[in-house]
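User: Structure please.
Assistant: Input sequence and predicted structure:
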Amino acid sequence: MCPDNGCLQSDYYCLWETEDREFKVGIIGTGPGFLSFLAVIFNEQYREFLPNMRLVGVAEPNPASPKLKALKNRNVPIHADWKDLLDKNPDLDLVAEFTGNRFLRNTLRQALPAHTSLLDHSMAVFVCGLHTMAQTSTHCRINLQEHQALLQAIIDEVREDIMLLDLKGNVVDANRSVCDRRGLSKEKLNGQPCWKVQTLEDGLPFCSAMDPKCPFLITRETGQKSEALMTRVDAEGHLRYFRVYSYPIRDSSGAVSHIMVMRRDITERTRRERMRQQAEKLAIIGEMSTFLAHEIRNPLFAIAGFTNSLLKSKCLSGKEHEKLQIIAEETKRLDHMLTSILNFARPARVTVAQTDLQAVTMETVELMSMGYRKQGIEFVTTFEPDLPLVMGEPEMIKQCLINIIKNSIEAMEHGGTIGISAGRTEPHVFLDIRDTGKGMTQAQLEQAFSPFFTTKDKGYGLGLAMIKKMIEESGGLVDISSKEGQGTTVTLLFQPVLAGDHSG
């Protein structure tokens, strides 16, 4: 160690400034502390804390001592006594005495030259303590490394994105899911703001800046765990749902030093929950329809009958006739709305047949194009070759197509293109209807299939909900994707007819 007045005086030197120097050590005796001292000399883990030492000889009155076996294959000379050790190694830097003989210890202090230090038997307890501390440290370090490796392996196997952030929101650590999605190593991600690191599956950024609703900010402010539901639209225009969690990581003083953020894609789970909720909603509508049919429709027929009868009267003034006409029209509108609700709530009588999807689609397009081409609507159709037959009643598919095309036309006020394509995507046959209209907002996309949700001045919001209901009851699926200003795509997925099927 360095003296208090530094290492500048010529009479002193600092052990830490003698890395290239080798300290020659001799040992006298093999009593308590001998094996610990050998471990200190020969074990590489001590090189971090002690200068480089070389054992040049051991003096042992009993050459048959079993402890000398520890020197086997190390070519360390064994001397008969300490005098022979000193005579043959006059340049020793350190002599360690492990005999426990006080007389010999006093003799050695007088006999050793000034440049040779003595570590006597009474100091062995410190050598043993140093050895024990090193062994304990090594054991703890190995255990810690094993636990870290196990924990990292577990975290890497989690499919959700997990990041450890500092209080500025910069990445300190991330699991394999984050790294694989970005295609970058953990080292390259560390230090970057979290909002620059997280992306969707298709590579689009999850955030363009730090989201003020992010749970990270709440945890940083409150020191408590937080969570939030976030929605994003992917590159294909599909709405995706994410649950984001944040957990405070505290230091030894209890202060929040880091925050762990986990992001989970719950789109599929949300879709199932919505389907269940919609089924419950349809059940409620079914019960309401029974009430409407008995409690509203009969009085409605009476109102309509009396109104039409009064309209035939010649005793009415112009204003009275006009008011009755309004009553008649509103009554008719209410009846039409009631019929739509009853049709929606009533189980669809779908006859599942084997249908040529391409033929039904082309027939529908030809029918629609006759009335809308003059309004600037262009139809473009594309079909993969050798499409199999699909499970679905032709008239039902045609009705769904007509309703979707009408929606597309209404979304293109100044004309545009409706692209219709069909092909195979295992295990379904798909039919895409794409328009170049104004598209849908994220909120509209979220409610697209909800009954009674509509953005039109007229209508009851049952169009897409009815399409979804009919397609799913025939064994298919319906999906929708949209971006504001970039149009909307509705995808119908049908079950293909397999060899051996004889439905219909």
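Residues 56 and 90 are 11 Å apart (CA to CA).
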